[in-house]
Amino acid sequence: MSKILLKGGTVVSSKGMKKADVLISGEKIVAVGKHIHTDASTVNVSGKLLFPGFIDAHTHFDLEVSDTVTADDFSSGTKSAIAGGVTTVVDFATQNKGEKLSDALNNWHVKAFANSSCDYAFHMAISDWREDVRAELEGMFEQGVTSFKVYMIYDAMELNDREIYELMVELKKYGGIVGCHCENSGIIGKLREESVARGDVSPENHPKTRPDYAEAEAVRRFLTIAQAAQAPVIIVHLSTTEGYLEVMRARQRGVKVFAETCPQYLLLDDSVYDKPFDEASKYICSPPLRKAEDQKVLWTALKSNNLNTIATDHCSFTVEQKRAGKDDFTRIPNGMPGVETRAILMYTYGVRKKRISIQQMCAYLSENPAKLYGMYPKKGAIKVGSDADIVIFEPRGNSTITAASCHSACGYNPFEGVRTEGSINRVYLRGNLVYSNGEIVLENHGKYVSRKKPVLQ
Ligand code: URP
Ligand code: ZN
Ligand code: ZN
Fold first, then answer.
1. What are the backbone dihedrals phi and psi of residue 419, each rounded to the nearest 5 degrees, phi first?
2. CA–CA distance, 298 with 304 (Å, rounded to integer)
3. Cβ distance 426 to 435 under 8 Å?
4. pTM here?
5. Would you state the pLDDT for residue 1?
């Protein structure tokens, strides 16, 4: 079995940083400490930070949506992931209406198998709640799917309050958790219709028709359902102050709620929608980008550990695909790429700007999602027995984000031209060097991660 000693680096965890060597044997970490005596081949990582491989628990690869399919499939999406230090993605297997969960899961296995350059797991997005779907849930857990998602919006996927309640109650039997896309579909649907009827069809109408209170109302309603069901839940891609306040209020009344946000809600604002169509449409995602004030509140929430994970909601489309909405913004496919730039952005604009600590960066990008999604300590830790998923991070130097140097098939980057500090120097996936000095050196080595129950801390 091949052995590698990573020597002289600083190991980062949510608890702190310590100088330690890390010995990898085959796919696993077998020793962490000082003065490890071994015949392993040695890699000098002095001056570098060692993070447990990052986890992006919110991606949509190869998703058919808005009469098209995302630009990134598992092949390009997971290459983009490893170049960004992401060694595991949790993608949303998505049930179409009328479909069985087992068929949806099988579809996602087919999409990902042999095409993935990082490890992958699946949440199950439930779009059609039926008795036979209820009966399938236990089987999902047996197959390593322990987290679920519902949408309060999007005609093709929306569940009503009663259905969400029933799902929550059922999942409690197995120790699962449900995440939610919280936006009020009635209000937003009508505002969008009215906007188009008035002839207000350009991208600047996207945020106007998805106001912050429509997120907050849905967050409150979802958390009220969770309160009734006494079930643990996650709010995905939380984007507003008002939504965050609802999370805090629900916690005060005893609801077990976790919350995720994304770099776009921390670093970009809705002024981008005033740009010409091809620029503005790149930023059309739901929820939409918000105001500088919302960013400030989300950063403060991260600083005080009141959010739990930072994911990306990577859901990419080319400029050409976005042009489907040239004459009607409601037809623009929603989403943007993000999996490749999350870590470097959070290091630059979080850690270096002192908005979060490096330990918190490790928690939000690696340790917390590993725990919340039932993968810890196999993933999310540099510990004896953990998978040898390790990011060697060079804190010195700086760079600029360009689409040309990224691996997404969508052809653009929402952070084009943004200056970054530090760099991802090397990435190990289960002991295999997959990325080194700007190059992907090993492709399609990803494996399915069958997950255990969430750890609800
Ligand atoms: O615009 C977005 N976020 N598209 C991806 C699907 C979702 O809502 O998470
Ligand atoms: Zn969503
Ligand atoms: Zn999403």
1. -80, 140
2. 10
3. yes
4. 0.98
5. 86
